C-alpha cells in the first residue's frame, strides 16, 4: 500500500511545503526527488499531477518526494534561481536523513526550469546517483523573453517576487552561473537521461541535443515524438523516466 505524508523542508531560511510518498515496510529503500518547473498556474505541486509520478516510483519500490520551490504556491520565500538550486540540494539532504531511506541510493528527476537549476547540483553532489533531466534548457540566456516571462509570472501571482528590479539583476547572474552546459560534463560516471519532446514550444528540442553532446557516458538521449513542453503528461515518456531511475539508482 502506498502512503503519503505532508512534509516541511527548511531551505534558505524559509519553509518549503512538500509530500513524501512511500510503501509500507521496514527495509531501507531508494528514493527519488522530483522537481517541478516554472508554474503555469497558482497551485501547489500536489495539485499538478506530480503525485501520480511519485506513486509510479513507489509501485517500483522507490520512495518519492515532491516539493514546492521557494516563491511558489505551497512554499514560503521569494523566487530566485540560485535559491531554487539550494532548494534542490536541501531536498536531497532531507531525503538522505529519513530513517527508511537508503542514502546511498538517491535519484533526481527534474522538469524544465527545475532541471535548469538541477544540473549544477548533480555535478557537485555525489549523493545523487542518477539523474533524469526532462525538457531542460541547455542555456537560458539563449531563450528569448525569459526576463519578461519572470515579470509576467510575478504580475499574475505565479511567482513571489518583492523587488522585480533586484530579482532581474540576480537572474542575469544566475543564468550564467547555473548554465547546464557548464555542468553537463561533470556528472560522469553517474548516469544521465536527457528526455525532451520534439514539439516543445517553449524549450526547443535542440537544447536536448546540446546537453547530450556536452554530457559524458553513461548517458541516454530520448526524444519523444509529438510531445510538447508538458512532457510529464505523456505516459510513455514518464514510464521511460521511471525505468531509467529504477534501473540505475
What can you tell me about this protein's structure?
The chain is α/β, with parallel strands linked by helices. The protein has one domain (2-248): Alpha/Beta hydrolase fold, catalytic domain (Rossmann fold). It has eight helices and eight strands. It has an eight-stranded mixed sheet with strand order 1-2-4-3-5-6-7-8, sandwiched between helices.
Within the CATH hierarchy, at the fold level, what is the topology? Answer: Rossmann fold
Strand order of the largest sheet: 1-2-4-3-5-6-7-8
> Could you tell me the radius of gyration in angstroms?
17 Å
What structural class is derived from the secondary structure elements?
Answer: alpha/beta
Number of domains: 1
Describe the largest sheet: 8 strands, mixed
CATH class: Alpha Beta
Count the E strands. 8
Q: Look at the structure and give the mean pLDDT.
A: 96
State the shape: globular
Number of helices: 8
Termini, distance in Å? 22 Å
| Helical fraction | 25-40%
Order of helices and strands: EEEHEHEHEHHHEHEH
Under the CATH scheme, the architecture is 3-Layer(aba) Sandwich
Strand content: 15-25%
Low-confidence stretches: none
CATH homologous superfamily designation = Alpha/Beta hydrolase fold, catalytic domain
